[in-house]
Amino acid sequence: MSFEKFSLNEKIVAGVRALGYQTPTPIQLKAIPPIMKGRDVMGLAQTGTGKTAAFVLPILQRLMQGSRGHVRALIIAPTRELSEQTHEAVRQLGRRTGVRSASIYGGVSIYSQTKRLKDRVEVISACPGRLLDHIGRGTVDLSRVEVLVLDEADHMFDMGFLPDIRKIVKCLPAKRQTLLFSATMPSDVQGLADDVMSDPVHIKIGPAAPVETVSHKFYPVQMNSKTALLKDILETTDMESVLVFTRTKSRAKTVAQQLDRSGYKVTSLHGNLTQQKRQKALDGFRTGHYEIMVATDIAARGIDVTKISHVINYDMPDTTDAYTHRIGRTGRASQTGDAFTFVTGQDVGIAHSLKRVLGEKLEYRNVDGLTMAMLAETSPSSGSSRSNGRRSFAPRAKSFGNFNGRPGKSASRRSWSH
Ligand code: AMP
Q1: Domain with 166 in it: what CATH number?
Q2: Whole-number pLDDT of residue 244
Q3: Per the confidence metrics, is the pTM higher than 0.85?
Q4: Domain interval for residue 315
Q5: Are residues 245 and 373 in the same domain?
Q6: Digit-coded pLDDT (tens) for 234-280
Q7: Is the CB of 86 under 6 A from ligand 1?
Q8: pLDDT top residue among 179 and 367
Q9: What Cα–Cα distance (Å) separates residue 390 from each residue in 363, 370, 377?
Q10: Separation of CA 46 and ligand 1 centre (Å)
Q11: Ligand 1 atom having least distance to the Cα of 24
Q12: Which of 110, 115, 134, 377 could be 140's S-S partner, Cβ–Cβ 3.0 to 4.6 Å?
């Protein structure tokens, strides 16, 4: 089935073509028809499924009819990056429609946003806090909003935004279309959905499990060997662009500095950076100027860089959900990707949970001298050196790159910036 079947305005189809989308993704197939009919929709979908276009396309279709030049669609997202990306999707998909879009989030000047809001904007992609600021100052008029989208609702809940969202919803007309997307459905999000939606169509795209197109590899390792292991992987694996996750902001900075000193083109993305620096890091990574980005969870939430070939969890995420979200950064929209996760002794609990979710798709890898003999009983492919669960290093037989099933350094090394 092609996009033509949705009977979208041809100016919108032109935007779809310009982005190179050939066929709709499953969530687009399921969500676009009811959204176009004006129904409320609750979409349980993981990231990377094409959910943004699933709501942006029907919104554009709606906006091309009726009065123009005032705010008619409001999309609320948990992070600045996601809000910027959604704004960008509206701009790209709507490039021929003349629809005017703005993104609204904190950390940047409120005055330039105020100016933009006066400029006949029709779609707003916003983070809750700054939007409430604008509402308080009377610099945004939401009285004629026809569609409200709550994107990544579970993250908004995690980040404590649900009270803000309820305040925002009070400023909107009661008669509107509401769309809510979430990778998981905690009871608080369900409660919000019950309050703000009316007779929604429920759409579920697969279980909230890591995307199918990604292969998952665990590397048991000791904390102090992680950077050496990371460099080893970077040196011996064929990679296009790599997103490395750390647990803390300071570690994101340190790891990026360590890689930079080793000659890699690397940037970092974390909450201690100004919005301008965050955007610069993201743009540099997106254009390929930086091959590696080291980021924390919050900073990287929802970022859409099309060609991330590898996600490396330098630090194990705290939950299986967080893993799903990190891994959703690669293998997007049916591209393939690899996810490497460093597992220390402290991560055994979460490693077990992930093993249950990933099942057969999970492989354990051992790099001689760097990964350690642990978690052996959880490893389907563990060799004798790992079978006793001891946390000792395996003997270093050879130089780097001699891990299971992977060609060594000489075969697969890619000449990056060294
Ligand atoms: P999302 O889940 O909305 O973040 O989308 C993930 C990625 O898939 C983005 O890079 C989109 O541009 C891309 N995408 C969305 N829909 C399609 C489609 N029908 N065909 C190919 N790529 C798509």
Answers
A1: 3.40.50.300
A2: 95
A3: no
A4: 208-392
A5: yes
A6: 998 888 889 999 999 999 999 999 999 999 999 999 888 888 888 89
A7: no
A8: 179
A9: 19, 14, 11
A10: 12
A11: 19
A12: 134
